[in-house]
Specification:
Length: 344
């Protein structure tokens, strides 16, 4: 069994422990505010966060604005992206009275944890981190110091609030691994301060984009949660298909048709093969009509809740979250400096 398979195999027991003792867990998760959240985020992470919150687990969500510049020159319209993401969190059911939603850059003490953390890892450990390697290749740029140290920064995100449960996709698991290493080494040197967090992963396949490739705003193949029903219809209408009349699910040979089928299936809670069988010889037009209707119906309530909120609501949530995160980060940093003998 490879290590990912081994991690997945441990998940049922972990989920059972969370159910029984939600108070023993603290979730830290988040994303980079690079654009609008889409259906892939909804099924990949948002839904899981809301479930954990409902189970009674304390939840922290970081909008990792500093992480935006790991692989690009400037942060872009980061504030707007932060507020839009918060509106989606609220519409999806995250409750800001129990969940702490905050922006990276607003919590200085979190970043100061980087200094002792950097001292417990080596350059070669960072260079061979699979996530750093993959992002470096995808960026087509030289390796910046921030990208090289990105996993350590993420360890600070997790450990500043002593998060011990990190819902992640497969590609972020190496970050959880290095976070455990950093926590362990810090504790060995200075006494027990940090938990060793565990990753909460699903083996559910990632939702592809409308063209079957990885869902990404930059490919134009994503359905943003904030789109209107008409915008949704337009992106689906524009999606490419192929010339075969019969609709079949075949991600290898027919990625475009299969991307549409996967999208319809996930919002309907059915399998793509089942949806393909229903459409049969009715062709790509019917597939697109069914997908559009299914997505718009699925998102109708989310969009209605979203439309009832304003950017000011989002800003207020972030400000309150920032304050909470700052106070926790200050406490943790104090504890770290005390452990290191640096209180004057
Ligand atoms: N790196 C994550 C992403 O690209 C976002 C993130 C930042 C994160 N800090 C985190 C995820 C801490 C989990 C825990 O999506």
């Amino acid at each position: 069994m490879d290590s990912f398979a081994a991690t997945v195999a441990r998940m049922p027991a972990l989920r059972a422990r969370i159910e029984q003792h939600p108070d023993q867990f603290r979730v830290l998760t988040g994303e980079r505010p690079t654009g609008r959240l889409h259906l892939g985020h909804y099924f990949g992470t948002l839904r899981e966060r809301v479930r954990l919150q409902a189970a009674g687990v304390q939840t922290f969500v970081v909008l990792a604005d500093y992480q935006v510049i790991t692989d690009r020159d400037v942060a872009g319209d980061v504030r707007q992206n932060v507020y839009e993401a918060v509106l989606d969190y609220l519409a999806a059911g995250l409750d800001p009275r129990s969940a702490t939603i905050f922006a990276h850059s607003a919590v200085p003490a979190l970043h100061q944890l980087l200094l002792p953390f950097l001292s417990v890892v080596t350059e070669s450990e960072l260079r061979r981190n699979p996530t750093v390697k993959a992002e470096l290749e995808a960026s087509g740029r030289a390796l910046s110091g921030l990208l090289l140290t990105y996993p350590v920064h993420q360890a600070a995100d997790i450990l500043f609030c002593k998060g011990n449960l990190v819902p992640v996709g497969k590609d972020n698991l190496p970050h959880v691994e290095i976070t455990r290493t950093i926590a362990r080494r810090f504790n060995e040197r200075y006494g027990s301060v940090f938990p060793e967090p565990v990753g909460l992963v699903t083996d559910a396949p990632e939702l592809p984009g409308l063209d079957g490739r990885k869902m990404s705003k930059s490919y134009g193949n994503a359905i943003a949660l904030s789109m209107t029903a008409d915008e949704t219809a337009t992106v689906i209408k524009r999606a490419r298909t192929d010339s075969e009349r019969a609709i079949t699910y075949d991600p290898e040979r027919r990625p475009e048709v299969s991307g549409l089928l996967a999208t319809a299936a996930v919002v309907l809670g059915r399998t793509p093969i089942d949806v393909a069988d229903e459409i049969g010889d009715a062709g790509a037009g019917a597939l697109k009509r069914l997908t559009t209707e299914a997505v718009n119906e699925f998102l109708a309530e989310h969009r209605a809740r979203r439309a009832a909120l304003t950017v000011d609501d989002a800003a207020a949530v972030v400000r309150a979250g920032n304050e909470r995160a700052q106070s926790i980060a200050d406490d943790t940093l104090h504890e770290v400096r005390a452990a290191m003998g640096m209180i004057y």
